[in-house]
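Exercise 3.2. Students should predict the tertiary structure of the chain below and write it as structure tokens, then compare their answer with the key that follows.

Predict this chain's 3D structure.
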Amino acid sequence: MSQATSTPDTFWSSLREQLLDVIPPDTFRVWFDNMRVGRLDEDGCELIAPNEFSAIWIRDNYLDIIRREADRLVGHPFTIELLGELSELPVDGNDRMKSSAKPSGKRSSRLSGPALQGRSLGINPKNTFTNFIVGGGSELAHAACIAVANAPAHAYNP
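Answer key:
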């Protein structure tokens, strides 16, 4: 590797300069400012986005540009993997970076039936489905809320 690409920080700094020439500054600030380089070697690197959503969006919209500019920077074909900061797997399906987090095995207990009687849930009685006025602009929202309330973790996974 050249002097300009010998460490993750210098590589990312050099690549950022090249990307700023081809990506609008506002877009760059939103999607690339919080990225960093993880692994870096002769053949490629891992770019770490702040979250999985950002990694997927960048992959879908800018991965070809990033690869082209990285190839130009190092002078040969260069592999780029995009990862979300908290992801267990790289976005492209490679499983080299596994998370060390393990489930605790504890479950939160939910109260139901008689256990709930006499307890306040902290819900404002004015904000219930029976008091909700359904109109033309709120039909879809009302239907979605009813579906989620009637089938928790099935229609929507909170």
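Discussion points: Residues 52-74 form the longest helix (23 residues). The chain has two domains: 3-84, 126-158.
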